Amino acid sequence: MALKGRRVVELSQFIAGPTAAQLLADFGAEVIKVEPPGGDATRRLPGTEHGSAYYRCFNTSKSNLTLEIGTEAGAKALDELLASADAVVCNIAPGTLARLGRDPERLMRDHPHLVVTLISGFGQDDARACMDTIAQCESGFAWMNGGLDGVPRVSTSWPVDYFSGLYAAYATAMALADPRRTEGVVIDVPMLEVASAVLLGPAAILAGEGAALDGPTGNRDRASAPSSIYACADGYAYVYAGLDNYWARLAPVVGGRAAPFGDRLAAPAEFDAAVEAWTRSRTRDEVLAEMARLGIPAGAVRDPVEAIAALRATRPDAVTSEGPEGARLPVFPARFSGQRIDRRPAPPLPADNADPGKEIR
Q: What topology is assigned to 227-301 in CATH?
């Protein structure tokens, strides 16, 4: 694996930092997760008899220890650990890092060899607290994601946390792999920048160039029409018919008028109404079958249970795998020449870490 032989210390909780470290572990890094004495806060979030689903989802293939880094003994043990590491991934808030004497300048002074990856809400020069949903709102995404009534909407699946973890892991891995690097480096990953880069997309370019931005569009596609979620007799389906060649095929079927791209985009409600008047009298499967016949992209709106079953019908090893005692493990969403990355279960909370350094020296 690409990162085999590299040691990464993780000082993080919740999602963004643990995701970054998890991805580094996937590619061979030895990840040592440092938890506070009570453990990562996600251990106390909902789950099953196997424990918190949140903790188990983002902490596979790691070892761990508990350490109170705010004490003199804990700080000494952490320094010993960092001295043996190649990188540290941290999502402790900048203000807290400064109070602990672990701000970027101090980390570089004490451990000049380290790749130091710091995930925060607004960057290391801004002490404001931030969570995923706050970044969605502050970045403009919640406004863009709003309904047709103009009410902003956040995604409850933590996209900013995931993407922040992904960018942090990517940046850390590239720094570790750089053969020209002769000293440590601080990688500053602000969640707000990640949200702006990933969730706004072309809107960020348009805003930067002074172009007017359309208001919230609900489930409608911003760049084509008609393309949206449509009610069927027994559920919902997404139909992407907004490109000219697709609409030319669908319009005669649903009784819509022929219109060029610009006209449709300027009046999406008219064309959505034509499509939905047709879909409402048909089952979801009938709608999808007709779209397949016409060669128009479409998909069912499924709940997670149905969605996972549908995916596993064609990729049986997708989404989760079976771990010890029937617990499920999240699966890395790609195969390498047909093989999956082997993930180990997230580690339990250590029972005794009186001398945590002893285990990892």
A: formyl-coa transferase, domain 3 (3.30.1540)
Domains 7-201+341-360 and 227-301 share a fold: no
pLDDT in the model for residue 330: 97
In whole angstroms, what is the distance from residue 30 CA to residue 63 CA? 8
**Which CATH topology does 7-201+341-360 take?**
Rossmann fold (3.40.50)
- Output the six-digit token pair for 28: 């061979």
Helix (H) or strand (E) holding 187: strand 185-190
Q: How far apart are the first and last CA of the chain?
A: 23
Cβ atoms of 89 and 9 closer than 8 Å: yes
pLDDT tens, position by position, 210-246: 999 989 999 999 999 999 999 999 999 999 999 999 9
Q: Per residue in 65-87, pLDDT tens?
A: 999 999 999 999 999 999 999 99
**Where are the chain's structural domains?**
7-201+341-360, 227-301
Task: Check whether 356 has a pLDDT greater than 70.
Answer: no
Query: Over 97-113, what HEC string results?
Result: HHHCCCCHHHHHHHCCC
